[in-house]
Amino acid sequence: MPQDEEFSAPGNGPANSVSRLAALIPGVLLCIVVAGVSAALEAAERSLFAHPYVEALVLAILLGMAVRSFWNPPERWQAGIAFSAKQLLEVAVMLLGASISFAAIAASGIALLGAIAATVIVTLGLSFGVGRMLGLSTRLSILIACGNSICGNSAIAAVAPVIGADGDEIASSISFTAILGVMMVLGLPLLIPLLQLSATQYGILAGLTVYAVPQVLAATVPAGLVSTQIGTLVKLMRVLMLGPIVVGLSLLAPRLHGGVRGKAAVGFFRLVPWFILGFLALSVLRSLDIVPATVIGPLTAITGFLTVVSMAALGLGVDVRVLATVGGRVTAAVTLSLMLLLAISIGLIHLFT
Is residue 1, in this structure, part of any structural domain at all? Predict the structure, then answer.
């Protein structure tokens, strides 16, 4: 007993730090294993089909949920799982800023940029309203709205820590958004002959409606190089909206946590999380070419893997029974939101013939 008291004494800070670090190892390693398996499955898809229909990000959360269904990790695993779900995700969001440059967006024209921004804002509001109308929680409605309106799973992953969403809410929004994301890749090219779309129109439509950048490539390659280039550019513009949206949500975060706590003033760095500031700073540095182009590839790879590890952690923390209670409403919210986005986007593309 005296030894335990001495170990936990405040004066033994380094020893306590080492102990806390050691406690993270089992859970973090478990998440890395699940992420590694997911990455291997995505690589197998890429080898067989030339592109993945289900990304490692989605596979990780599904595999994590599958593991949790058969085995509930005991207490010694929980610290590392929680660390992977929160802190590693925050680091990934910050590093994401290094891959975003404002130069390509500025060169594309004010009209298209304004149209994309307006589409994102309108669909955000409408999607949030649909979620609330169907009885979903405020945070889950925000996640679904951001996922549909901006960039799917990446937007959900970025917004979740800002608004304090829990693992069940994140898993619910990502799982059903992912299913519709795959359906969009497979079904969107059918609109080309149906609506008699030009290559430019279809590229804009794909960039506005498909969730992830790799999915935009998969959806536009059958339509030709012009559609692929335009679709990718529009998609990158849409992704850029993530920064301002997340900053805005961070200012509203206290309301989502029950309002302002007490009478003390809330400082700027309390309202805007450190990783959001890091995201914006890296975006500016990238746009000014201060971040060397040679490091963008490695940073992007690290960001992607950290996000997959975080999604594995979220899956491991999800009780499938919770998903069953909200599945129908979440599916309806995501589907209706996507239909609204499609309708708005189809109307918009006729302005850019």
Answer: no
Q: Say how many domains are in the chain.
A: 1
| Token representation of residue 269 | 């760095």
Are the C-beta atoms of residues 323 and 53 closer than 8 Å to each other? Answer: no
Instruction: Confirm whether 5 is domain-assigned.
Output: no
Please give the structure tokens belonging to residue 49.
């089909």
Task: Give CA–CA dist 271/290, Å, rounded.
Answer: 28
Range of the domain at 221: 28-71+78-257+267-349
The residues, ordered by sequence, that sit 6+ positions from 322 with a Cβ below 8 Å of its Cβ are 168, 172
DSSP-assigned states of every residue in 202-260 = HHHHHHHH-SSHHHHHHHHGGG-HHHHHHHHHHHHHHHHTHHHHHHHHHHHHHHHTTS-
Per-residue pLDDT of the chain in tens (353 residues, 90 and over written 9): 444 444 344 455 566 767 777 788 888 899 999 999 988 988 888 888 777 767 777 788 788 888 888 888 888 888 888 888 778 877 877 787 776 666 655 666 677 778 888 888 999 999 999 989 988 888 888 998 988 888 777 788 778 888 888 777 787 787 767 667 767 877 888 888 888 888 888 988 998 888 876 677 667 877 877 787 778 778 877 877 887 888 788 777 666 655 444 333 434 554 456 776 787 788 788 878 787 777 877 887 888 788 888 888 878 877 666 556 556 777 788 888 888 889 998 888 877 55
- CB neighbour list of residue 193: distance below 8 Å, 6 or more residues apart: none
Report the 10 Å Cβ neighbour count for 294. 7
Q: Indicate whether 222 belongs to any domain.
A: yes
In a domain, 7, yes or no: no
- State the Cα–Cα distance between residues 23 and 349, nearest whole angstrom: 53
CATH of the domain at 88: 1.20.1530
